[in-house]
Amino acid sequence: MYAQLVETGAKRVKSLDEMSPEERAFQERIDAEIKIEPKNWMPDGYRQTLIRQISQHAHSEVVGMLPEGNWVTRAPTLKRKLQLMAKIQDEAGHGLYLYSAMETLGADRDEEIEKLHNGKAKYSSIFNYPTLSWADIGTIGWLVDGAAIVNQVVLQRTSYGPYSRAMIRICKEESFHQRQGYQILLDLMRHGTDEQKQMVQDSINRFWWPALMMFGPHDDDSPNSQQSMAWKIKRKSNDELRQMFIDQTVPQLEFLGCTAPDPDLKWNEERGHYDFGEINWQEFYDVLKGNGPCNRERIATRKKAIEEGAWVREAAVAYAEKQKQRAAA
Ligand SMILES: CC(C)(COP(=O)(O)OP(=O)(O)OC[C@H]1O[C@@H](n2cnc3c(N)ncnc32)[C@H](O)[C@@H]1OP(=O)(O)O)[C@@H](O)C(=O)NCCC(=O)NCCSC(=O)Cc1ccccc1
Questions:
Q1: Tell me, what's the ipTM?
Q2: Nearest ligand 1 atom to alpha carbon 224
Q3: How many whole angstroms from 329 Cα to the centroid of ligand 1?
Q4: pTM listed for this prediction
Q5: Parallel, antiparallel, or unpaired: how do β-strands 266-268 and 273-275 relate?
Q6: What is the pLDDT of residues 48-97, one digit of tens each?
Q7: Which SUPFAM superfamilies match (predicted)?
């Protein structure tokens, strides 16, 4: 695998011969599938790559609450409202586990959140699309959490211990999220009016391609993949995961009685996979640059929440201080 990785370019991966003794011992540990823990020596690039990926992952969970929050007051029944609130609360929890995992690498949570607010740190492109109908809440659970699960199940085997352990818990909760989303769509398709069925199809039409973009650029255009695969931070490539997601999702789509907005989507007997059309990469990069339909709104909402929540944080610190003084007295 090394020779293959070294040949294909992008951010160049060092061969074993080029490594310092420390780097070589580190790589051997990774190759032996022994987890890297916070106190172990690690190359600075490994640390920085993890801080980047884990912080972006945490930001995605937290920003990902916003499109759904839009529907809490409008969920059609009390049961749906409770399920949606539980899901959103889980996402806040996922953000917290991930920020904590990131802190074990020496990163500062406030600094990383500031990078989100000033546009230096990314979060998943998918959360820059609006939720226009109740069906979108179903589609997000089914397609967006579905895509997140495909990516995160593999990350349970990532080489950094705290990240891998956070993923195990997160994946369990994501499975519930996916089921609740699919159930919303199934109910609308089975018991809904023609207008409600149309609402589901319209929602799938809008979220299908952005969900496929969640896996990132093609492998050949992914600058971080080769090094991240060599360090086993990533265990499968962007294109491999995207294909896995499509293969498992199309039968669910057919079961719903809906279609994908992709005329090229068809089963390829020879490959044993679905073929699919080309993603609009221009749209993907536009969203990454901050020009998606909701980028500005999302960041403005996050900043407002941090500013308006300052008094809660100050009160919590003052309370902890008082408790400490009481305990010492
Ligand atoms: C696969 C990838 C996302 C990207 O691979 P890498 O090796 O890191 O990068 P690569 O070289 O391939 O790309 C070049 C550049 O493009 C960036 N970029 C790529 N794709 C995207 C994108 N889609 N959106 C935005 N940016 C993207 C990438 O960061 C890099 O930029 P940089 O160099 O930093 O400036 C990886 O980071 C990963 O697995 N992360 C962990 C999983 C994770 O974060 N999940 C989040 C969803 S959680 C969820 O949904 C739960 C939920 C559900 C429902 C409701 C609420 C919550």
A1: 0.98
A2: 11
A3: 49
A4: 0.94
A5: antiparallel
A6: 999 999 999 999 999 999 999 999 999 999 999 999 999 999 999 999 99
A7: Ferritin-like (SSF47240)
